[in-house]
Amino acid sequence: MKHAITLAHSPDPDDAFMWWPLADIDGSGPSIDVGDFEFELVMKDIETLNTEAEEGMYDITAISIAHYPTIAHLYDLTACGASLGDGYGPKIVSKKATTLEDLLASNPKFAVPGLRTSALATLRILAGEHTITWEPVEFTEIMDVVSAGLFDAGVVIHEGQLTYEEHGLFEVCDLGAWWKETTSMPLPLGGNAIKKDIDSRFDADATSKITGLLLQSIEYAMANREQSLAWATQWGRGIDMACTDEFVEMYVNRWTLDFGENGRKAVQQFLSDAASVGAVPEIATIEFV
Q1: Residue 98 region, left (φ>0) first, then alpha (ψ -120 to 50), else beta?
Q2: What is the full DSSP assignment across 130-179?
Q3: Could you say which of 37, 95, 248, 259 would form a disulfide bridge with 263 (CB–CB 3.0 to 4.6 Å)?
Q4: How many CB atoms lie within 10 A of CB 282?
Q5: What is the 8-class DSSP label of residue 2?
């Protein structure tokens, strides 16, 4: 009898690109040998997954790196499956062209994609001692509410990083570029977390087996790019195949295969800086498996 494993991820091209080989998406079975496990893919927006991770709802789940300290008693970070912005990332956009300095000096109100997101944590690090306020808005609606003048600026994620100009918006700051210039590190945005009790529930090396399968899934998806893109483009929310390919390349790459030493240091630096401005709880130890 196979062990049922729930794997929750956001309904976005990069996550869809990575995990389809684990599941039976067309009735022919998984594309890789998953051994004693049977994976069920669950798709929900990242802020919902962050919230549900607090209850330990899924065996494996995508989370915002900023939310890891809150759920670290339940989950470890997997070494693979992360989204790091290497010189790019969520963007601050506004209805009118302005400088970052002028925007921050105006006591601005931001539309953000969730209270638990890395996008908000990075914004708060960037703002430092400036007075800013923020309000959570569905990430698919941020560009619309900024265009309507309901907020001074918004932080766009996912494909919005590529399509904001189509909404008549202006880039004020690329948070990933700012972070790279400030720290010389990639910006840790999303991670993959696995329940700490997996071994006790299944067998002593279940965590190792499952994380190995996660890596195999990513490698298979990357090796079969056209097939992976055909699946992933279903969650591109109006972007074409070329744009989907560009977005996937941004967030499914060498960092996704393994955080590596530099990626782990980036997570530590990010969470330390975020804690220093009160954006996340302090955390002493970050567990990677």
Answers
A1: beta
A2: S--EEEE--GGGHHHHHHTTSSSEEEE-TTHHHHGGGGT-EEEEEHHHHH
A3: 259
A4: 10
A5: P
Which structural domains are found in the chain, ordered by start? Answer: 3-84+188-276 (3.40.190.10), 91-183 (3.40.190.10)
Residue 165, pLDDT score: 73
Q: Dump pLDDT digits (tens) for 6-65.
A: 999 998 888 999 999 999 888 889 999 999 999 999 999 999 999 999 999 999 999 999
Q: What DSSP character marks residue 229?
A: H
* Closest to 9 measured CA to CA, from 90, 111, 104, 83: 83
In percent, the amount of the chain with pLDDT more than 70 equals: 97
Query: Do residues 123 and 276 make contact, with C-beta atoms less than 8 angstroms apart?
Result: no
Give the separation between CA 30 and CA 125, rounded to whole angstroms: 42
pLDDT value at residue 26: 83
pLDDT tens for 126-141 read 999 999 999 999 888 9
CB 141 within 8 A of CB 190: no
Residues 6+ apart with CB under 8 A from 176: 85, 86, 87, 88, 89, 90, 186, 187, 189
What is the separation of C-alpha 68 from the centre of its chain, rounded to a whole number of angstroms? 12
For residue 272 the two structure tokens come to 């330390």
